[in-house]
Every structure is written in C-alpha cells, then in structure tokens.
C-alpha cells in the first residue's frame, strides 16, 4: 500500500514534459532585429506562446508555424538587411587559424585598383605585417574574381554604400568576434599616406593594444576636425564605450586607419558593435538623419545628401562621428595616445 501511495503522489507532482528548446532566448534574439515591426501581431502571439508548456503536438506545431512566419516577414521586409553577400577563396583557411598574428581589413569604394595593389604590397612587406593571416576586402562595388585575386584578398564582402569605412570595420568585428587574430589592421583600400603608416608601424609590438595609423588631432566632446558645428552623438558614444560622461578634450585619430589587438576589441560585447552598425545603416526618417541640423557648413550638408546607396538611402553624419571616436572605443585617447597604447 505504501508503494501505491507513493506512486500516486509521484503522479500528482509530476511536471508536464517540456520541449527541450530555449524558446524565450530564441524569441528574444528574433525580436532584436529591426524588421520585426512589420510582424508585430505575430510576434505578440509568439511571446504569449513562450509562457506555455507544450502538452500536445498540436500546440507545438502552432509555435513552429509562427516562428517560420516571423522569419518570412523578416526576409520580406523592405528595410536594409545587415546581411551582405560574401565571396571566399581557396586560401581562406588562413582566416580560420586561431593563432594567426594579423588580419588586414580594407574598405574599398572607387579607388584605383593598381594603387590599392601597390600599397597593399608595401604594407605586407613591413616586418610586423609580413605574416598576416588574411586580407578582408569590403567593397561597396561589385568586383570581379580576378580583381580580388589580383589584390590578394582572402575574403571579399559586398557592403552597402553607407557608413563610410566604419561599416567595414564593424562588419569584420562582428563576423570574426570569436575568431579574431592577435591584431587587426583597419585601413582605407587606397591607404592614406602609406609612408606615414609604414613609419608608425615601426612602433608596433606584440603587446600593442591600439596604434593609430592616421593623423592625430585634439577634439572636444562636441566637435572635432574640419566639421564646423556640433557632433551631438560623440557624447553618447563616449558614454556607451566608457560608462562615464565626456568632460574634456581627447586625442582622435583620423581616416579610420588603426591597429587594434584582440583584447581591445573583446573589451566590448558584440551587441555594442551591433548597435553602432545598425546606427550607421539607419534609414531615412530615423533621428540620426536629423543630426546635420547642428552643422553650420551648408556645402558639407550638400555633400552628405549626395551620398546615396543602391537602396536610395542617404548617408547620415554618424559615419563621420565614428571616425573620430575609435580612440575612445578602444581606450587610447589620452595625451600619450599618439605613441600607442599597450595592453
């Protein structure tokens, strides 16, 4: 009788079987994407389903149908997707080795291919870069395979003509966050002032955390180098990157050309870089496209409005802000910054 009673008690407290899937996490990841707004009604149903324990195959089937419908909505959304086409080549294995020393990341638009090729060869001849693992070429135009081979590129990625070089930098960081080399060198495809870059690289060591390869200048919290007016997002990026308020001048490096260590990049979580990248690709009507109202130079405003990508979207001022904030993001913005910052 005792055994029967225990068996009945066990049946009473026995929990319903739960499908072995982390539904809350899956839904949370899906809802982070910007296009989900077009499927808000379906998302509401899915979120309600996340609190239900499945007792039958019927409810389980409904849940997966809703998930599939959400994916179809995201795919059909008219907003620009952060996913971009990607070409890889035979020597891509070099990019998969965890112990590789250096990756080179190039942001290409309409630069002369011969100039890009010759400067890349000069860069790869430098002793610190000689053992580079692979070359990532981010192009805003379509390049033929033979052009990519001629540039000795390992990975070629087609990106949108928005966000300036920072779009390529952030794409590389997000795509390789868990497989970064010891150092990454970020450059314009037609390297600005290659002689200056090669001289600065002489300071590079295995312990180098950040080394600016462009020209340096002192910036305030609201304004920086050649843009007359207020760059209102500089304080916000400062706060996101440091967790503090911007209270004074800092050193900034220009052209988006820099050497950064894996440790410096990994100080921020991927969602930090994802937020910055989504801001770069903000669509017309987004508040970021209103930031140029603080700029006094009408010629510069006119230039900004001529930068249009293949989807007809105008570039925002955020790319220029990002160019000036890399030193803050990678924590090398004090008076000693031009000498480089060690990890």
Task: Describe it.
The N and C termini lie far apart (70 Å). The longest helix has 20 residues. Helix 3 runs antiparallel to helix 4 and helix 7 packs across helix 13. Strands 1-4-3-2-5-9-6-10 form an eight-stranded mixed sheet. Strands 7-8 form a two-stranded antiparallel sheet. Strand 2, helix 5 and strand 3 form a beta-alpha-beta unit. Helices cover 39% and strands 14% of the residues. The chain folds into two domains: 61 residues, no CATH class; 257 residues. It has 343 residues and is an alpha/beta fold.
Summarize the main sheet: 8 strands, mixed
Spans where pLDDT lies below 50 across 5 or more residues:
1-21, 33-54, 69-84, 308-313
Strand order of the largest sheet: 1-4-3-2-5-9-6-10
| Molecular shape | globular
List the secondary-structure elements in sequence, H or E.
Answer: HHHHEEHEHEHEHEEHEEHHHHE
Considering DSSP H and I runs of 4 or more, what fraction of the residues is helical?
A: 25-40%
What is the gyration radius calculated from CA atoms? 24 Å
Q: What structural class is derived from the secondary structure elements?
A: alpha/beta
What is the count of β-strands?
A: 10
**Number of helical regions:** 13
β-strand percent reads: 5-15%
Distance, first to last CA: 70 Å
- Average pLDDT, rounded to a whole number, is 75
Provide the number of structural domains: 2
């Amino acid at each position: 009788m005792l055994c029967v009673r225990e068996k009945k008690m066990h049946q009473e407290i026995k929990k319903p079987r739960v499908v072995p899937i982390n539904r809350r996490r899956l839904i949370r990841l899906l809802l982070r994407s910007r296009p989900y707004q077009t499927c808000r009604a379906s998302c509401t149903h899915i979120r309600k389903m996340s609190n239900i324990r499945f007792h039958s195959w019927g409810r389980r089937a409904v849940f997966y149908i809703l998930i599939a419908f959400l994916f179809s909505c995201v795919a059909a959304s008219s907003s620009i997707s952060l996913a971009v086409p990607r070409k890889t080549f035979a020597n891509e294995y070099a990019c998969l080795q965890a112990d590789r020393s250096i990756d080179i990341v190039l942001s290409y638009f309409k630069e002369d291919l011969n100039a890009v090729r010759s400067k890349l060869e000069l860069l790869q001849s430098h002793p610190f870069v000689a053992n580079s693992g692979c070359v990532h070429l981010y192009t805003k135009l379509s390049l033929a395979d033979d052009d990519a081979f001629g540039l000795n590129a390992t990975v070629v990625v087609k990106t949108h003509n928005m966000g300036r070089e920072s779009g390529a930098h952030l794409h590389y960081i997000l795509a390789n966050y868990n497989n970064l080399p010891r150092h990454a060198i970020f450059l314009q495809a037609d390297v600005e002032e290659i002689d200056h870059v090669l001289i600065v690289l002489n300071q590079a060591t295995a312990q180098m955390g950040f080394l600016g390869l462009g020209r340096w200048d002192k910036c305030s919290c609201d304004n920086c180098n050649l843009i007359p007016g207020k760059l209102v997002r500089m304080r916000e990026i400062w706060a996101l990157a440091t967790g503090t308020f911007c209270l004074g001048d800092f050193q900034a490096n220009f052209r988006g050309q820099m050497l950064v260590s894996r440790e410096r990049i990994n100080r921020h979580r991927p969602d930090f870089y994802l937020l910055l990248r989504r801001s770069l690709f903000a669509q017309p009507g987004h508040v970021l496209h209103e930031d140029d109202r603080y700029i006094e130079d009408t010629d510069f405003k006119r230039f900004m409005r001529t930068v249009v990508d293949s989807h007809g979207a105008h570039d925002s001022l955020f790319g220029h802000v990002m160019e000036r904030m890399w030193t803050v993001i990678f924590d090398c913005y004090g008076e000693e910054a031009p000498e480089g910052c060690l990890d």
